[in-house]
Write a structure and sequence with these properties.
- This protein has a five-stranded antiparallel sheet.
- The N and C termini lie far apart (about 50 Å).
- About 30% of the residues lie in helices and about 30% in strands.
- The chain is an alpha+beta fold.
């Protein structure tokens, strides 16, 4: 955290160990998560809520896929719940000391670069999203 500009990381750490970061208009978090096969550094930043306008979903998915095609390194775009994220997850055992700061910086710089244009083009709807299928 000190290498990405926070002199006192404890001030930006929650009770679960997530460290919160901000760069420009982007906010994100970084932490160590455990899975069945080991520990991972996870860095994620929400970019925008999914649009409620169904006509925007397909163009947004295409744009995200095209952006993913050109992202260098391990960062990627995806959807969690109703929100578009940019994230990276790297096995802790494979990380060198500078990789922690690099992962945080990469995700946050890309989030700051992508959030406003994506919101401008695909956001702005105010109606609540509804399920796209009928319950049977």
């Amino acid at each position: 955290m000190k290498k990405v500009g926070y002199a006192n990381p404890a001030e930006r750490t929650d009770e679960h160990g997530w460290r919160y970061v901000q760069l420009g208009s982007a906010e994100g978090r970084a932490g160590i998560v455990e899975s069945a096969d080991g520990l991972y550094l996870a860095v994620e930043s929400p970019l925008m809520p999914l649009p409620s306008d169904g006509d925007l979903i397909l163009p947004l998915m295409r744009a995200l896929s095209e952006i993913n095609m050109h992202i260098a390194g391990g960062a990627r775009l995806g959807i969690k719940g109703e929100v578009v994220y940019i994230a990276v997850a790297r096995p802790v055992v494979e990380l060198r000391p500078n990789d922690f700061a690099e992962c945080i910086h990469t995700v946050m710089a890309m989030a700051d670069e992508l959030d406003n244009p994506l919101i401008e083009k695909y956001g702005g709807t105010t109606k609540k999203r509804t399920a796209s299928h009928k319950d049977t």
